[in-house]
Specification:
Elements lengths: L5 H10 L4 E5 L3 H18 L5 E6 L3 E4 L8 H10 L4 E6 L8 H16 L4 E7 L12 E5 L5 H15 L5 H11 L4 H15 L4 H15 L2 E4 L12 H9 L6 H6 L6 E6 L5 H12 L3 E4 L1 H4 L6 H15 L3 E5 L3 H4 L5 H4 L3 H15 L4 E7 L17 E5 L4 H14 L9 H7 L5 H18 L5 H9 L4 H4 L1 H12 L3 E2 L35
Parallel strand pairs: 1-5, 1-6, 2-4, 4-5, 8-11, 8-12, 9-10, 10-11, 12-13
Antiparallel strand pairs: 2-3, 7-9
Helix pairs in contact: 1-2, 3-4, 5-6, 5-7, 6-8, 13-16, 17-18, 17-19, 19-20
Length: about 525
């Protein structure tokens, strides 16, 4: 279905005589500029012209008519009695929606406008979306989108002409892409700052403004990832899948007929590379990486969770193209099934908003969701169409463990050729990538304390002291593999639960463990 831009949507609602329209936007001036343009076009097409009025608590009514009425209830009384057709924008009206008298009077407006011969629309223009339950059926919400490429390019052209900057069209395109996600005022300010600081446009300055937007949201974290894709050991099929889509967000891909990639769900054993992959994708695709703490969405006052998820989606789309990383998804949405009894349906509503966006989004926001416990995920999340692919991330086999060892030794400034990687890979059967990394780090501490350099013997000793997760959580891991066998794609390309030459994907037995662990008495999970 073709999406209508917010200006066109707003014009259609006004022409269709929707009585109450809630415009969610922090760009008050830009919304009002759009209303003036819309009002002019609408009045040319109708025999019943509308006057355009603006109201605020500080100025009362201004615009095509002026009234010194600053009280919100009296303002609504005047609107109901106003005998001419009008489009009336109420600035920052959301705080008054807590007053039951104001809510009742808005419902009276709705009824009066439907019965009026003269067309009237009331618009609540606010940066915060707060819709009272009583008004949910009487009010329509428009999320007024941030400036698109055309608006930002026009702004850049104004600067280029005013300051006689020598930039070709390709350069202007790059600056326009960098500025996407900023409000009109933010773009104006950052371009001015760039000119003062560098006497030219500067992409670094523009991108730093984007990062500030993320910090201000309080819900998302902007990850400055230093993880290269080469730092991810194993997971051959998953990495291949991601590499093939690194240019899928370009206009060339659209012209070729490719849809914008939606995202992937990574399910699997903790410490096996799910989060590391998410961090590396941002670097590979050269996109901002945003991490969402789902718990923060549900923090705060009752009723704020729906507003929080709306802000998260708006912010992610504002800085797009971007990668949105939802870590340990099950911790946020595990209570969906019981939401009606536990939190008056808040979790279910937030979850519904999220999966609807995930299903229908056309913006270049790629979602990487990770989960360790699939039993806690709502079944609706796993339905076809939510994600492009569901991958299962298993324990690394011997070949992958050898690669992981090589990566971590190299990162610690040691030559992997000086270590017996075959022996170390063989004896770490059942280890996760994170456990291998911690074993190398532990060996480094031992070597540093003893005043010696790192060698195979010390790494071997460090591994012998590790009790891998594949032992302590064997039953849960087996259940997870059973689930994934018919429901997910193997991230490594091997059949899920497949053995390597020493049975690597299976949990190790006591005889297969390093020497120092063979006689440990472990309690069952």
């Amino acid at each position: 279905m073709e999406r209508v831009d917010s200006r066109t949507e707003l014009e259609h609602l006004i022409r269709a005589r929707y009585p109450i329209i809630y415009v969610a936007s922090s760009e008050e001036e830009r919304v009002e500029h759009a209303l003036r343009e819309i009002s002019g076009r609408v009045n040319k097409r109708t025999a019943h012209p509308r006057k355009l009025l603006f109201w605020s608590i500080t100025e009362g009514f201004t615009g095509d008519a002026e009234f010194d009425v600053k009280d919100p209830i009296k303002a609504l009384d005047l609107i109901i009695k106003y005998e001419e057709g009008a489009v009336i924008a109420l600035r920052d009206f959301h705080p008054y929606l807590k007053d039951p008298v104001v809510v009742r009077r808005l419902r009276d407006c709705h009824r009066a406008f439907k019965e009026s011969e003269k067309p009237k629309n009331v618009l609540l223009v606010s940066p915060t979306l707060k819709v009272p339950t009583e008004l949910e059926k009487e009010m329509v919400v428009v999320d007024f989108a941030l400036p698109d490429r055309g608006e930002l390019r026009a702004l850049l052209e104004q600067f280029r002409g005013a300051y006689k900057l020598a930039h070709d069209e390709e350069a202007i395109d790059r600056y326009t892409e960098a500025a996407l996600g900023l409000t009109y005022d933010e773009a104006n300010h950052v371009l001015a700052k760039s000119l003062i600081r560098h006497r030219d446009f500067d992409i670094g300055t523009i991108l730093s403004e984007k990062k500030a937007i993320i910090r201000k949201s309080g819900l998302l974290e902007y990850y400055e990832t230093d993880q290269a894709f080469a730092d991810v050991g194993g997971l051959r099929v998953l990495k291949d899948w991601l590499r093939k889509r690194m240019n899928a967000f370009t206009q060339r891909a659209r012209d070729f007929g490719l849809p914008v990639p939606k995202g992937i769900l990574l399910i699997g054993i903790p410490g096996c590379g799910k989060s590391l992959t998410a961090k590396a994708v941002g670097a590979l695709w050269q996109m901002p990486l945003l991490r969402l703490d789902v718990g923060k969405v549900f923090s705060g006052l009752v009723g704020s969770s729906e507003e929080n998820i709306r802000k998260v989606i708006q912010t992610a789309e504002a800085v797009a193209p971007a990668v949105l990383w939802l870590d340990e998804l099950e911790k946020g949405f595990s209570g969906v099934q019981s939401s009606g009894q536990s939190d008056a349906g808040t979790t279910a509503r937030v979850f519904g908003s999220f999966i609807t966006w995930l299903q229908e989004k056309t913006s270049p926001v790629f979602v990487i969701a990770t989960a360790n416990d699939v039993s806690m995920l709502p079944p609706e999340l796993l339905r076809k169409g939510r994600f492009d692919e569901i991958f299962f991330v298993d324990m690394p086999i011997e070949e992958e463990r050898r690669e992981i060892l090589r990566i971590h030794l190299d990162k610690k400034k040691r030559d992997p050729a000086g270590f017996d990687l075959d022996m170390l890979a063989a004896e770490t059967q059942g280890f996760s990538g994170a456990e291998i990394e911690q074993g190398v780090v532990g060996a480094l501490y031992d070597a540093f304390f003893e005043g010696e350099d790192l060698d195979t013997a010390r790494v071997h000793q460090a591994f012998s002291e590790v009790i891998p997760l594949s032992m302590t959580m064997k039953e849960r891991i087996d259940e997870l593999r059973d689930w994934a066998t018919t429901r997910a794609r193997s991230a490594s390309g091997l059949p899920i639960g497949a053995r390597d030459e020493r049975g690597g994907a299976e949990s190790p037995t006591a005889d297969a463990l390093p020497t120092g662990m063979r006689h440990l008495e472990l309690e069952p999970d």
